[in-house]
Amino acid sequence: MFEEIRKLIERYDTIILHRHLKPDGDALGSQIGLKHLILDNYPGKQVYMVGDEAGRYAFMADCAMDTVTDAQYAGALAILLDTSAPHLVSDTRYTLAETTARIDHHLFLGKMCDVEVIDSSFESCCGLIAAFAQESGYTLSPLAARSLFTGMVTDSGRFRYDAVSARTFQLAGYLMQQPIDTNALYGSLYAMDYEQARQRAHYMLKMQLTPHRVGYIYTARDELQEQDPAAISRGMVNVMADIAGVHIWVNFTESDAGVLCELRSDKFNINPVAVAFGGGGHQKASGATVADRETAMRMLDALDKLAAEDQA
User: Is pTM, for the whole model, over 0.85?
Assistant: First the structure.
């Protein structure tokens, strides 16, 4: 499955790694992990990472992005990671590269690169790259392993989501042959201080239900004060998870770019709703950005109708 990607990496001396906007642990983990796999196994190559800042994942080692000029793309290979659509790419200059490649685990929405490895049966892009490393017999450094493991943990919901399989645990075991301090990792990912606990409680109390029990939170721009809309959008959506009888939940957060929408489900394929509103993702975890509250409420109505089908 990875033969063409491996040949491209062997061929090019300059490789530039891209991923999606507002990175999560999987986007950054795949970027950092692949960077160090290449450097560890092909000494002398120049490998760069580009994109917006790491945000709440700034605890990850070597997460700082590089400054890359347009001229450096000439004669280079650009690899796009963990991204399903062009408008979701952080730094669209990957199109300037001589050759482009993509490794992704999202549902396929259309070809974006010259060479593509897309497999939505994987729980994470990091899982795909771990499989690539294992299949290729690559040397795996602790930093590469820790980065890839972080992405597997975050995109699998701590190994709880449907995409988790025996393969997921086999690959996690392969990564954990390197020293990974899971206590430190989980502390960085999930530990919260008192103010964060209060914040989660605040958003939990904002939750409302549609007639067919779709849980939702809507936060207007002026309610956010100094809080980062992207962090609230993704960070607070799962305060609604694990509530009996609620199988779809969505967090709406106003931002300068529009209303950020994070859609989740433990039962339904909500991806078509996200796609219909210009977004994408997975069957049970998707996102979109819409123009205004009115459009967000139309999305909520579509989700309510989806939930109603199960109650008919």
Answer: no
